[in-house]
Input
Amino acid sequence: MQNETKKSGIELGVYTFGDLGQDPQTGKTIDIHQRLQEVLATAKLADEAGLDIFGVGEHHRLDYAVSSPAVVLAAVAQNTKRIKLSSATTVLSTIDPVRLFEDFATLDLLSNGRAEIIAGRGAFVESFPLFGYDLSDYDELFEENILLLQQLNTNEIVNWQGSFRSSLHNAMIAPRPAQKKLPIWIGVGGTPESAIRAGRLGTGLALAILGGDPIRFKPLVDLYRQAGAEAGHSNEDLKVAVTGHTFIAKTSQQAKDEFYPYYANYWGYVNKQRGMGTKISRSDFEYMASPETGLFVGSPQQIIEKILHQHELFGHQRFIAQMDIGGLPFSKVAEGIEMLATEVAPVVRRETAK
Output
């Protein structure tokens, strides 16, 4: 399946955090049971529409529906046939790598070889006190855990010693995935050190480009590929993914008019969760959604142009859209997925396959 998608240009997909935002138009907040059902329905729709990847994020808060991506993706696996299934992202600093690998190896077996892991340090930090980790060890925990995860991915029997968990002595790591190895990506929000680490370790690089001029991320991609080459990894193994907020409508004006209340609402509650009171005005949003920025809001043609422009900058292999934010109704998410799959994807695949 990976060879087929490679031949047909870059992969396209969708991801979700399962946030439980209030709909600013109705004042209603979806309950968690319905939100999880909509996550499953989104994955099924994306699979049937022919998209390549579906991702689920991890949060440990009452205003998000997903704390265990592997469990949700196992349910998704039973309702889908071909779409790849990934965390987006796993907070690797606060999860035991052995448990993580075994969960995703099991998912890989249940899905006939479709599981992947995007690992990150975490933009939200609730999981540190929740699972008994010190936030001051933020980076050291991630470094140790990603190195262990790579060993688990390579070897059935592991001997290992680190600073933050018990040692492993001839430990059997079971089950083994259906794939030879689970694809592992490192999620990067903007720090050069993280990009260099991904290159050094030979993992994929998943860039979160949520706005601004995307050219500012090009140095990160260059650092990633340079570090990868210096570490002896082939260019073919150094894969880049771009992720971003996305809303598609028939026209640019319709897209901006419909999405603005939800986008402003999304950043309203995300900034509040982070202790900030920042709000997005309509004029700010107009600039954020302009053609030269990394916010994917517009007509199918504008989304195509933004993806292809970024492909010229990064030469990336994958684009993953986050479409269900801010309390957006599922009907609008479904419309967006349909347009992404039927109007955007064919052109992007054709142009990037040249």
Observations:
- Residues 1-6 have pLDDT under 50 and may be disordered.
- The radius of gyration is 19 Å.
- Residues 2-352 form a domain with the TIM Barrel fold (CATH 3.20.20.30).
